[in-house]
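Reviewers of the previous submission asked for a worked example of the structure-prediction workflow described in the proposal, so we include one complete record here. The input consisted solely of the amino acid sequence. No template or homolog information was supplied to the procedure at any stage.
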Amino acid sequence: MEKATNILMCPGNLLQYPKDYRNINVWMKEKHTIDYALVQMELEGVCKYIEFCNAHISCINHQADLPDMFFVRNAGLVLPSHGDSEKKQVILASFKHRERQDEQKFYRQWFEQNGFEVIVLPMGVTFEGGGEAIFCGNQLFFGHGFRAPKDTLTHLQYALDEARMEADIIPLKLVDERFYHLDTAFMPISGDGVDTKDALVYYPGAFDKESLTVISALPINKIEVTEADACAFGCNLLAIGNNIIMAKGTRKLSHELKARGFIVYEADMAEIKKGGGSVYCMTLNI
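From that input alone, the workflow returned the following structure tokens.
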């Protein structure tokens, strides 16, 4: 029997940025104009698509003065099951900006209360969870350059060793500040091997030349995303089986995914994107 997909989300009832909240990414220039009613409508639309794909949604409470908790993908890196262990494990995030640092204790509390073994990185190490590190089979792609430095890779390796998990960590350097986390410009999708094949969606302009050389050598079908579609947060999609939930507004990417056999649901994300994230950012596979 296929394992059920479980998704963690945050209600979004406090996605309002106070006046003293710094622009911690370039998409937040309109931060004071976020319409809460529209955020709720967009959130409900994504939730309906997730449930329609037979996934289960759990929630973590949104905390006052921590608006970016809404982007729960950054809570930590949930490790896939490995070996004979069914133990749930997560490498807890530790944030660069003070505006997000208090989120860590609430994420840790939720993980511990829900049966996760929480692996904590050493003090001073920056790592922003599933937004910066993405598994694809036995490879872990790690994006660095704007939030976590490349040195974080060493600590991630220690954490994987602690979890007794074998994975090759592949660093990719981000060079365009619009794509400050890996998940805004790079997303592997697992096909079922029958109707759909594995694919990698990525925006080349987000990476340096060395990283592009690494990406080009990967033995996976690739979909190069245009700048316009990348800026529409097209790469920041959520795959559930052969279903893709993504932001409405891409010009080519959604058609390309449909042509490859995926079922694509396009959600209005115009208001949520003002915070600098989209569907993948606001969900965490647990």
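The mean pLDDT is 95. We consider this example representative of the routine output the project will generate in years two and three.
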